Amino acid sequence: MSHSFSLISTLAIGFAIAWALGFLMERIKVPALVGYLLAGIIISPATPGFVGDVNIASELSEIGVMLLMFGVGLHFSMTDLIRVKNIAVPGAILQMGLATCLGAVLAHFWGWPWGQSIVFGMCLSCASTVVLLKGLESRGILESGDGQIAVGWLVVEDIMTVLILVLLPPLASLLGSPLQNTEASLPLWQIVGITLAQVFGFIILMLVVGKRLLPWLLRQVAKTGSRELFTLSVLVFAIGIAYGAAQIFHVSFALGAFFSGMVMRESRYSHRAAMESLPLRDAFSVIFFVGVGMMFDPNVLYEQPLHVLAVLAIIILGKGLVAFGLVLLFRYTLHTALTVAAALSQIGEFSFILAALGLQLKILPQEGMSLVLAGAIISIALNPFAFATVGPARDFIKKRWGFARRMDARIDPMALMPDSVGSDILHGHVVLVGYGEKGKIILEELLQRHLSVVVVDDHHSVIEELRERNVNSIYGDATDPAVLIQAHIHEAAILVLAIENEILCRKIVETAKILRPTIETVMPAENEEDAKALKADGVAQAFVPDELLAQAIVQFTMSRFGKESEDQKIREEEAEERKAVERGAL
User: Fold this and answer.
1) What are the backbone angles phi and psi of residue 475, rounded to the nearest 5°?
2) Which of 105, 190, 230, 586 is 20 to 30 A from residue 170's alpha carbon, by CA?
């Protein structure tokens, strides 16, 4: 086939084989991504038959990473990142450091120089963004407390990896590179300072300028009524900003796209942007896995099987145990520790980039690249199974480890309703699940209307903040009956869901109606059709998200309490009192 058609042939044959193998994997209850990886191996240069264009697949994979990170940014606000900073920042730094040490010691044991060993260890320290997000999304926990910790952890890892990528060339000579590098003449403190200035300069620009400019631009495009132009705008913001960030500020494509989506979250059209980019994200994520498979040389499996097993032990067991221990050290639950450990026990795209740079600088042997790819592919293929073992592992650990049983038996004070809360307050009240941007507005509106509210949220810091304000609140997962019982759902009048995840909302409503069959529920919906379906199914009264969503939910809630007229009367009385005081003062 003519070389000019390499893009079409790579996509056509790659997609066809990935579809067939993905379908087969799903039929035998194996994750589809395993089929995508096998498809990449089949069309790789290491296997006979058709050979795809590795360079094209690699570039298309980068687009997939950009679109995926843009979508994550649309659902992950800076507030969410700040909430988990106490565990994500130290946890990510410590885990990367320990994983690097393990990899470096292993490679030095094989006889590699320390410079090569350190670079190899760094390649094993950073998890795959794509794999982590796919794993969390497939289990519906991306927006949960555990999911936010894992994503925040990975964002910190990405930032650290960006620093490594920028610092590696000027430090190559210190690591044993035979190449001459003019940047090495700069002092180390100056190199680090420039790098930090570039990264934080981009972040500040996005949070200050982008936060105002991008939502405004998207609103102007939406006013034209053109769906194609709206989709094109999403692609421009996702890919264009990521590319500009890499060229101007020298940050990664993934980090640039993530912050682009995060500031786009401020727009009322953020949900539409997420839906428009979803098909493209899915398609390019398949290309990512196919591209990874194309870079793999199967010969390493039988030429150096013990080396591959040792690398896998560091990636899956070493990194997993380090993450597990650190999460427990920060006094999070056993389930959270296992979930984060499973999410991070793999490596991916940043490992390939680091390994490729190491090869280019001649501070990593070709053998190192092959082992990194082998470890990445096998750990990615095994990662869904790691998630599947979270539940059984939790039960096994509790059964065999007394400390785990005591930890689970120890009840978090934030998960209990304080004894000081009177029974009159916990009768006929509102249970509000979720304290995000919409939840804050709803709570303030209900409190101003003198309504009794109990907030349920799975972020510990949120509940601490609410307790300091003397707001009745419970820490925990609202799908857990014990959490809703602590919120006195059996005596509540209405359940308000301020989370925009229909699957999670349905689970919460199902649990709530078991405890109180007559409770009335209010929740958001993606669109008018979903809202009608939720109402027809008897699940909840649903409202389509927009800038007036919180007020609409509040008005509906107040109408069910019959408090609209009473609330209006109170406001009128307060206004009359103020006028009387003013007349007296005159």
Assistant:
1) -90, 135
2) 105
Of 117 and 293, the one with more pLDDT: 117
Q: How far is CA 150 from CA 8, 25, 345, 540, in A?
A: 36, 27, 11, 31
Alpha-carbon separation of residue 72 from 64, 277, 338 (angstroms): 12, 11, 22
d(CA 36, CA 289): 6
Phi and psi angles of residue 538, each rounded to the nearest 5 degrees, phi first: 75, 20
CATH number 1.20.1530.20 is the correct assignment for the domain at 3-27+54-175+187-403: yes
**Coil, strand or helix at 541:** strand
Q: What is the pLDDT of residues 121-130, one digit of tens each?
A: 999 998 887 7
Side chain identity, residue 156: V
- Full 3-state SS string of 159-190: HHHHHHHHHHHHHHHHHCCCCCCHHHHCCHHH
Query: Per the structure block, which two tokens stand in for 243?
Result: 């590319």
Give whole-number Cα distances, 539 to 144, 481, 487, in Å: 21, 17, 20
Residues 267 and 273 sit within 8 Å (Cβ to Cβ): yes
Task: Say whether pLDDT at 568 is over 60.
Answer: no
513-547 pLDDT, tens digit each: 888 888 888 887 777 777 777 777 777 776 665 54
Q: Give the whole-angstrom CA distance, residue 526 versus residue 271.
A: 8
pTM for the model: 0.66
Residue 79: CA count within 13 A, CB half-sphere: 13
Alpha-carbon span 515 to 511, nearest angstrom:
7
Q: Per residue in 269-323, pLDDT tens?
A: 777 787 777 788 788 878 878 887 887 788 888 889 999 999 999 999 999 999 9
SS3 category, 333:
coil
506 exposure class (CB count in 10 Å sphere: 0-12, 13-18, 19+):
middle
Of the candidates 572, 567, 450, 569, the one whose C-alpha atom is nearest the C-alpha of residue 580 is 572
Contact 471, 455 (CB under 8 A): yes
Regarding beta strands 520-524 and 453-457, do their DSSP bridges make them parallel or antiparallel, or are they unpaired?
Answer: unpaired
How many whole angstroms separate alpha carbon 377 and alpha carbon 37? 7
Instruction: Determine the Cα–Cα distance for residues 369 and 389; give it in Å rounded to an integer.
Output: 29
Q: Partners of 455 in the beta sheet?
A: 432, 473
Within 10 A of 282 (CB to CB), how many other CB atoms are there?
A: 13
Domain ranges within the chain, ordered by starting residue: 3-27+54-175+187-403, 423-585
Residue identified by tokens 């058609």 is 5
Distance CA 256, CA 220 (A): 23
Strands 520-524 and 430-433: unpaired
CA atoms of 32 and 23, how far apart (whole Å): 7
Give the span between the Cα atoms of 26 and 465, in whole angstroms: 44
- Across 399-503, where does the E strand assignment appear? 430-433, 453-457, 473-475, 494-497
> In this predicted structure, what is the pLDDT of residue 572?
53
- Chain centroid to Cα 531, Å, comes to 26
Block residue for tokens 């750990």: 379
- In whole angstroms, give the CA distance from residue 415 to residue 463: 9
Q: Give me the CATH code for the 423-585 domain, please.
A: 3.40.50.720
